[in-house]
Amino acid sequence: MRFGIIGAGRHGVRYLKHLRQGDVLGATARVIWRQTLDAARATAAEYGVRAVPDWRQVVDAADVDAIIIATPPGAHAEAILAAVAIGKPVLVEKPVCGTLTEALALQAALRPDAPVMIAQTLRFNPALRAAREALADIGSLHRLRIAQRLPPNDIPWQRDRRLAGGGSVTLTGVHGFDLLRWLVGHTPDAVMCRCVGIPPHPFECLFDARFTFDDRPLLASCEVAKFSDSRSALLELVGSAGQLWADYQYGRVLRMVGRDLAVIAEPGDPPTLPLALDAFQRWRQGETPCPVPLPDGIETLRMASACYRSDALGAAARIAGQVQ
Asked: Among 91, 120, 149, which residue terminates a domain?
């Protein structure tokens, strides 16, 4: 499969590296676009691809079979629509759009079977997959906690609401929201969320969201701190028969049943982008259903929207059917 990349900046270059290194069998990169043409040409020369001055030329390129979109979320919808209109499948970075309103408009403009996959790479993390496979070992799940710590960054577009959609809830929280849905099986019904901004960043750098479900005694929380000079990613699952802990930053899963504590997986931290690209290829070759379809991306933004409403109200907010 020959890929074109729209948005070959900091994250798009990660795709380029894996494709050049042959980390995905049968996949190559051919064409890239980034906002600054001189930077695009320098990147293209380094990775043996060609740069074009207009992202539409990536979509239209005759030697491109599929499109990777790694631009800021506020620019995703137009590129998705252009690619799908001429029959080219899309792997788009998360969140699928900057806001739920934009995502719902995109969904309305596409066929239900439009070839769009969301790059929710945590679903391909080996430690998280091992934890998910071990859920039956701990009985009925009643407590789920996801906690991620990240250093701040200096990316300009993440300070532009039109492009970013929001702060840590939108740009980082959607990772955890999708992980929560993937583990539990559906979207929560309500959330109580508190967001905190830390100057000089204009948006929230810290949030704590607590989700509840109408049909089961389960409390699920997702928290992100994006201000510390450190990095960690932890998942805790507490069931009626035991507990699981997954460190998905460094790749280790522990299980406790009774007083028996065991390491059940220690896969380390292999890159997940090649795994997501491989899953994308197998889907397009007809081997599997779409691994992360558009509705899943919309549900994570529905959760983000409810988090913002809860924080603004100082009270719990319902999730289903609400638009921010």
From this structure: 120
- The DSSP code for 62 is T
Could you tell me if residue 78 is inside a domain?
A: yes
Contact by Cβ (8 Å): 66, 290: no
**pLDDT band with cut points at 50, 70 and 90 for residue 321:** low
How far apart CA 81 and CA 113 sit, in angstroms, is: 13
Q: Are residues 258 and 130 in the same domain?
A: yes
98 & 138 share domain: no
Helices (H) and strands (E) in the chain, counts: 11, 15
Rg (CA), the chain: 20
Give the model's pLDDT for residue 196. 98
- Domain assignment present for residue 56? The answer is yes
* pLDDT band of 324, cuts 50, 70, 90: very low
* pLDDT at residue 323 greater than cutoff 50: no
> What's the rounded Cα separation, in Å, for the pair 172 and 208?
12
Q: Which domain holds residue 232?
A: 122-274+301-318
What's the token pair of residue 238? 């507490």
Please indicate, yes or no, whether residues 166 and 307 belong to a single structural domain of this protein. yes
320 band by pLDDT with thresholds 50, 70 and 90: confident
pLDDT tens digits, one per residue of 120-145: 999 999 999 999 999 999 999 999 99
Q: Per the structure, how many domains does the chain have?
A: 2
Answer yes or no: are the C-beta atoms of 306 and 177 closer than 8 Å: no
HEC-encoded secondary structure of 173-191? HHHHHHHHHHHHCCCCCEE
pTM score: 0.95
CATH code for the domain of 35? 3.40.50.720
